[in-house]
Specification:
Elements lengths: L2 E9 L1 H11 L7 E5 L18 E8 L4 H18 L6 E6 L3 H4 L7 E3 L3 E5 L11 E5 L11 H13 L5 E5 L5 H8 L4 E6 L2 H13 L6 E5 L2 H7 L3 E7 L2 H8 L7 E13 L3 H10 L3 E8 L2 E7 L5
Parallel strand pairs: 6-7, 8-9, 8-11, 9-10, 11-12
Antiparallel strand pairs: 1-3, 1-4, 2-3, 5-6, 12-14, 13-14
Helix pairs in contact: 1-2, 4-5, 8-9
Amino acid sequence: MPQWIEISLRVDGEAAEAVAQELHKFCTQGVAVEQDGIMPNAWDDGEVPPPEYLIVRGYFPDDDNAEHTRQQINQVLRYLNMMYPVGEPVYKQVKDEDWAEAWKAHYKPVRIGQRMLIRPRWIEVETAANDVLISLDPGMAFGTGTHPTTQLCLEALEETVKPGVQVLDLGCGSGILSIAALKLGAAHVLALDIDPIAVDVTAENATDNGVADRVTAQTGSLESVVSSSRRFDLIVVNILAKVIIPMCDNHLGETVRPGGIGIFSGLIDEQADDVEAALRRTGLVPQRRYTQGDWVAIVAQRPASV
């Protein structure tokens, strides 16, 4: 019977993004990032503290090339360790019929901000009257709600979304931020990703959450938005600093209407100043930073027309 090999590493927040990005090169069946040390029932015990460590998991085929793949991964991790400690990887075999479900055992409901409750689609939860419930199956797309970058975006959305706003979710992943924006009162979300799998997952999750009629999920990038001349009241970009900065130099600010807001995440604290400088160059004025451990999200506004 075919098997898969799971690789997992326990790392801090600063290293998690770099490790996940490298594993994506070898683990084409998905990479998951989850909190470490949060007990299964802790999500309903009040506010969950920021995790000190994260677990990064990836999967690759246990075939004739498996040992070569393992050696390549180990070499990449050795290079990473020279720049920042990422620890030793743990490898284990997972049966073919179980690999896609293996990470789900570690994915639990989590409360974020004042009202948002993110639950895996396969787990039922009790909700309070004012809860904003999001049911999610991220599949092979990024965005479970457990990574600090996503949580910071959700917190910012909770405080930023106004009824009736038009939203752009650039790099939508699982669609979690699109769905949150709609459930917080947005009128419509254009959800774009360069990965067709992410677009399909976003559409499926939107349907499951009853908001499919207000989401347009499609393959696309910043260039496709700029060329269309579409403008939005709110944009959310949860990617990486090294992607956001070039976007700023390619007219990212033009996607925001005068007076509109942008939320930018996927950054560590030492990158925040550079990102804010890039946002200013593109016509957006930084207003606030949200932080969790080493991670930062920036809220910026395009000045209203005089």
